[in-house]
Design goal:
heterodimer, A: 113 residues, mainly beta, six-stranded mixed β-sheet, five-stranded antiparallel β-sheet, B: 117 residues, seven-stranded mixed β-sheet, four-stranded antiparallel β-sheet, 11 strands
């Protein structure tokens, strides 16, 4: 089955700096890669996703890049703000209705003032 | 519109007792998933429903775990003879389904925190 590895497990940045979180996956059939943000005690919130037919996607301060050859994808957050502090999870699936998500183990991001 | 809802939000039970957890998906979402999140860990897939059928139960940890879905909407996850290792947050998610260009995004409920004492 699919295996997703995520690094780093913790990340501390200064407000205004950029943050990068990286994930690798094992199943070459995976074609959908979402990122979730989870604040303490809250539900995971989908913040951005990418499908295998594109290499990069941006949404304001957040971007995701995908390298299908190398089987890795990354989350980039620019101009970080304190409210970006949370746990971020990457995931992978074969996409479409009915395909379970396999999650990475999460990255605790702390944005310091 | 209303998001995914789950009840109860917290459940404390004694070892050996049975528990039922409930999920109400987003209206119109035909796909429903259960995941488990242990303290400080990632999310672990348990089971997937398409309508009332469960084509993928591969994540259920043991035969003490079962789930059903009725009317293509509400789902219940039942854990029999609970053990301490069952303590976790149980999350439900739903998505649209149908075709290669839809049904990707999964939206999560707030979860049920289960504590087995």
């Amino acid at each position: 089955g699919e295996n997703v590895e995520q690094h780093p497990s913790t990340l501390s940045v200064q407000e205004g700096d950029s943050a990068v979180i990286k994930c690798t996956y094992s199943d070459s059939a995976s074609n959908y890669f979402p990122w979730y943000k989870q604040e303490l005690g809250k539900r995971p919130q989908l913040i951005i996703d990418i499908r295998s037919n594109v290499g990069e996607k941006k949404d304001q301060r957040i971007a995701v890049t995908l390298n299908k050859t190398a089987k890795h994808f990354s989350l980039h957050i620019t101009e970080t703000q304190p409210e970006d502090s949370a746990v971020y999870f990457c995931a992978a699936s074969r996409g479409g209705g009915g395909n379970k998500l396999t999650f990475g183990t999460g990255t605790q991001l702390k944005v310091e003032l | 519109g209303a998001g995914v809802s789950q009840s109860p939000s917290n459940k404390v039970t004694e070892k050996g007792k049975d528990v039922e957890l409930r999920c109400d998906p987003i209206s119109g979402h035909t796909a429903l998933y259960w995941y488990r999140q242990s303290l400080g860990q990632g999310l672990e897939f348990l089971i997937y429903f398409q309508g009332n059928s469960a084509p993928d139960k591969s994540g259920l940890p043991s035969d003490r775990f079962s789930a059903e879905r009725t009317g293509g909407s509400v789902s219940t996850l039942t854990i029999q003879r609970t053990q301490q290792e069952d303590s976790a947050v149980y999350l439900c998610a739903s998505s649209q389904s149908g075709g290669s260009h839809t049904g990707y995004e999964q939206y999560f409920g707030p979860g049920t925190r289960l504590t087995v004492t």
